[in-house]
């Protein structure tokens, strides 16, 4: 079902592009300077109408229908998928593997204005050259300290809105789309995601509803001899939030909320009591070097869940939009169907 929906969207885009090309070719032969001026005036008018939005403690006046948007962080992929009027983005390589060919082509064609994961590298001169009428910074508010806000706000209105927890992509994407006036486009996959999650929740309620799950982060940059233990609503486990499955436990330090760094020496204590272990892998099933090292360890191989074959490898495990989360749910379904715990 997911593939079909993605194909339909691509087909619709293609038809729209062909239609636009046809209209352009037709009007080009009979256009005048006044027609061109009228089009420019229309675009300018769309961008000049404004509305006020409140984000945290900030109140920002933004265009009602922005025509030239710069997006950074978690705002990049939702706005690409929603066909927003993007004129530039910050690098966002963490989700390149989640992009279909069309979205990847769009991403690669856009000017890159900052290095991946570091808004302090923002190129203000290059940003000004793309003439944005709205800048959406999909990064935590604390990142304001890393940028020159006076210089940024002199170019265009700026909205700072980023996650404080991995599961917040569900609401953030919709807010980014609202700022960009493309909510209808972005909402295309929300209903499909919710329906798929309900389907899987019902499918595994009887066989897995009483099982306990635990997660491991595959790309959290831990030092050798350590791993990042995920509890509920963490980087990969948040994709199970809507499936009604149990992820018990909390970090030793409550402020860590959804996960913590643990020594491999404590692996048996930390993950030895769960029935099922989940972790992310690449779209082709490959494991990150840090995860591969953990899996190769004798301590991992001795875990009851591993010996029982109750391990779920989640492709697209860093999904942060409804469209790519659909792909993750497909992978979760494939993994849950195949292992012994689902058949008991």
Automatic annotation (TrEMBL):
Major place of localization? other
Locate the region Disordered. Answer: 29-57
Protein's UniProt keywords contain Signal: yes
Q: Which residues form the signal peptide?
A: 1-21
- Record-annotated membrane-spanning stretches: none
Q: Which residues form the Fe/B12 periplasmic-binding domain?
A: 68-344
Describe the family membership recorded for this protein in Swiss-Prot or TrEMBL. Answer: Belongs to the bacterial solute-binding protein 8 family.
Q: What is this protein called?
A: ABC transporter substrate-binding protein
The species this protein belongs to is Rhodococcus gannanensis
Q: What is the lineage of its organism?
A: Bacteria, Bacillati, Actinomycetota, Actinomycetes, Mycobacteriales
């Amino acid at each position: 079902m997911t593939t079909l929906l993605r194909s339909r969207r691509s087909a619709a885009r293609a038809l729209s592009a062909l239609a636009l090309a046809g209209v352009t070719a037709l009007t080009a032969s009979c256009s005048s300077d006044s027609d061109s001026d009228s089009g420019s005036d229309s675009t300018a008018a769309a961008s000049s109408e404004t509305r006020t939005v409140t984000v945290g403690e900030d109140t920002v006046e933004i265009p009602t229908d922005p025509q030239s948007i710069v997006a950074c962080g978690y705002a990049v992929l939702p706005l690409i998928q929603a066909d927003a009027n993007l004129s530039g983005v910050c690098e966002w390589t963490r989700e390149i593997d989640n992009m279909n060919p069309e979205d990847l082509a769009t991403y690669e064609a856009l000017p890159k204005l900052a290095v991946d994961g570091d808004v302090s590298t923002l190129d203000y001169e290059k940003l000004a050259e793309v003439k944005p009428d709205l800048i959406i910074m999909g990064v935590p508010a604390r990142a304001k300290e890393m940028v020159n806000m006076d210089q940024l706000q002199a170019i265009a209105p700026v909205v700072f809105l980023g996650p404080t927890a991995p599961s917040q992509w569900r609401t953030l994407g919709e807010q980014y789309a609202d700022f960009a006036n493309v909510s209808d486009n972005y909402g295309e996959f929300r209903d499909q995601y919710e329906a798929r999650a309900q389907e899987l929740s019902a499918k595994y309620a009887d066989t897995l509803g009483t099982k306990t799950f635990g997660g491991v982060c595959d790309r959290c940059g831990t030092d050798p001899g350590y791993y990042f233990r995920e509890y509920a609503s963490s980087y990969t486990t948040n994709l199970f939030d809507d499936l009604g499955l149990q992820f018990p436990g909390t970090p030793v330090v409550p402020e860590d909320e959804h996960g913590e760094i643990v020594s491999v020496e404590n692996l048996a204590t930390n993950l030895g009591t769960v029935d099922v272990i989940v972790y992310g892998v690449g779209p082709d099933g490959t494991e990150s070097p840090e995860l591969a090292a953990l899996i190769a360890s004798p301590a991992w191989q001795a875990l009851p869940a591993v010996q029982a074959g109750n391990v779920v490898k989640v492709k697209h495990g860093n999904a942060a939009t409804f469209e790519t989360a659909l792909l993750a749910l497909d992978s979760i379904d494939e993994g849950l169907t195949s292992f012994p715990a689902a058949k008991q």
